[in-house]
Write a structure and sequence with these properties.
Length: 253
Amino acid sequence: MRLQEKVAFITGAGMGQGREGACLFAQEGARVVVADVDKTAAAETARLIERRGGQALAVVGDVSIERDVKRMIAAGVKRFRALHILYNNAGVLWKDRDRSVLETTEANWDRVQAINLKGPFFVAKHGIPHLIRSGGGSIINVGSVSALAGFTVAQDSYTSAKGALISLTRSLAIQFARQNVRCNIIHPGIIETPMQAPYLKDPAKRKSFEEGIPLGRIAQPREIACVALFLASDDSSYVTGAEIVADGGFTAQ
Ligand SMILES: NC(=O)c1ccc[n+]([C@@H]2O[C@H](COP(=O)([O-])OP(=O)(O)OC[C@H]3O[C@@H](n4cnc5c(N)ncnc54)[C@H](O)[C@@H]3O)[C@@H](O)[C@H]2O)c1
């Protein structure tokens, strides 16, 4: 019960890594605000948690819209009376529309930035005052290995938004350290989630991805949720401003 008495706000918790994190956090005693733009998905995650005896509140909104984020956080605080963990997990990877700078439209560039970078800004803006009021807390941002290495198949808006999140992570870590608010970032490699499903359908493509990973396989969402649990809990009480790469060794090559 590493998160007993804690309240966690998790974006993109309707599926993939966010759902897995929400279920694991609840299993460890947290009350979880399940935030997602997909109403059915958010409700299903909350139902899964409640069915296992946990407490959850599904809230629906778009992280790129400030009034949505403000409303979702307020609903969570109203229900659970505190907030200790902000898990900025929501993100989009649109390999068809977000490509090289030479091929990407301004509208697609902006939309990817709005969800992947402005979302965490709004969550930090409206969430941090509650963390401070609760005596401190943990912010977990989700980057990507693509922020650490350029890829031959470019996703330039995604890559640069995730890269900017590293800088935001360090800035928040330093600004709020004296208020006992920690902020760290996880860089996942390839994880088996609905986000990757269209790109992993082709067995040959999947095999070539796996061959490029030293551990020889694509990760399960649980393997990232466990890293997030470490960062959310007091097990990481002296860890702030840090980047944790969970990529099966990909970037160590
Ligand atoms: N899957 C991977 O291989 C991988 C690798 C590196 C980084 N990541 C990052 O991990 C995070 C989680 O990815 P995933 O693979 O679980 O993705 P996913 O697509 O499986 O799930 C993302 C969730 O975010 C929600 N979402 C999307 N846009 C939103 C918005 N505007 N407002 C609120 N919710 C929104 C979706 O409805 C969905 O429930 C993302 O930030 C992603 O960029 C994923």
